[in-house]
Amino acid sequence: MNMPVDVLVIGGGPAGIAAAIKARENGVENILIVERSEELGGLLYQCIHNGFGLQYFKEDLTGPEYRYRFIQKLKKLKINYLLKTMVLDITHDRQTLLMNDTEGVIRLNPKAIVLAMGCRERTRYNIFVPGTRPAGIFTAGTAQRLINVEGYIPGNRVVILGSGDIGMIMARRLILEGAKVEAVVEILPYIGGLIRNEVQCLRDFDIPFFLGYTTTEIYGLRKVEGVTISKIGGDSSNESIKDIKCNTVLLSVGLIPENELSLNAGIKLDSVTHGPVVDENMQTNIPGIFAGGNVVHVLDLVDNVSREGEIAGLNAAKYVLGEISSPVRNIKIKAGDGIRYVVPSYISGKKKVNLYMRVSEPREDATIKVVDDTKQDCLYERRLAVTRPSEMIKITLLKGRMDSLDKECGSLTVSCVGGNDNGKS
Known about the structure:
Blueprint: E1 7-10, H1 14-25, E2 31-34, E3 50-52, E4 61-62, H2 63-76, E5 80-82, E6 85-90, E7 96-100, E8 104-108, E9 112-115, E10 119-121, H3 124-127, E11 137-139, H4 140-150, E12 157-161, H5 165-176, E13 180-186, H6 195-203, E14 209-211, E15 213-219, E16 226-231, E17 241-245, E18 248-251, E19 255-257, H7 260-264, E20 289-291, H8 302-320, E21 331-335, E22 339-343, E23 346-347, E24 353-359, E25 363-372, E26 378-387, E27 393-397, E28 411-417, E29 420-421
Parallel strand pairs: 1-2, 1-9, 2-5, 9-20, 11-18, 12-13, 12-18, 13-14, 21-28
Antiparallel strand pairs: 3-4, 6-7, 7-8, 10-19, 15-16, 16-17, 21-23, 22-24, 24-27, 25-26, 25-28, 25-29
Helix pairs in contact: 1-2, 1-8, 4-5, 5-6
């Protein structure tokens, strides 16, 4: 297969589709999306609940509805895509090796690449849950596909380990399908997902949840028979150790960005997000390779995934057209007290830029500050009534506020100061 490609987008989920559309709208003709699944849109087809598009479309959509709008636009722009195609390797000079069952091995040398591979769920073996290995243990995303797409109920007495958004949404879904959710068990002293899902999925349906507990055993021989949970820092009393009978265990214990290809290409990864270190243009440390969406850091809303994909696609187009070149390394953005991470890691200080971050623990009445490390000037300050690690914080640094910065070797520190830790509330 010999196909001239200017921008190659790896991943046909919401970030990849948005990147391809934005690249086409900004003057690039030869665009190719490569997707290993049988259809475009990522996992949106199985997310039949609403809550999508509130920011992007100003409408409350289901996952399939959100996906449909982007795919229709993609087809209207006649952007090429390959399905059931696996990317095997990317080199530092952007040579790419693909394979599918119709064309065989395909070699491409695109002028720019957008990484949009998304993320995968952590499994039991990522969190070292002890016990036997019976049938009946699923990730929450697998259970979501079984119910919403395949039409199967994985079990009728369910314990959910972890309180991520998919887990809480599946707790509600299982109740609606007639199953009984015995408990949601969270190792942290606070719920790990969005507040709206805690309210709409757990509290509104009276689903019991245990905060500050960890799973110390899954038992059962052929089929799950129950789990034992223990309170963190507790003793051996009945209050600290609980036995919960069930026949199904769902895991909602976090997501991991898919970055095996990134590592092979020599892309530098962030130790906290496990995604590529990117600049304000979403360009990695390798010129011409951009990244956007959950492959960079796990986002809370699909609207933000699409927005980041658009930034990556826009700047991939600019790279192809010669409007930008090397990655920006002028000003480093550092996570200070109370902040877990900040994306992007580098900015130029020459244009308005959005910073995305998460706090390291829940807080009330705290203040986000951005400080110039050289002059100790405060460039940005905003009070937050309530914030928690599950909810992405977005702030905008205006160009006028950065005019005084040393744009060659400066650094900014983002901190969350003051307020009260409400993690145990």
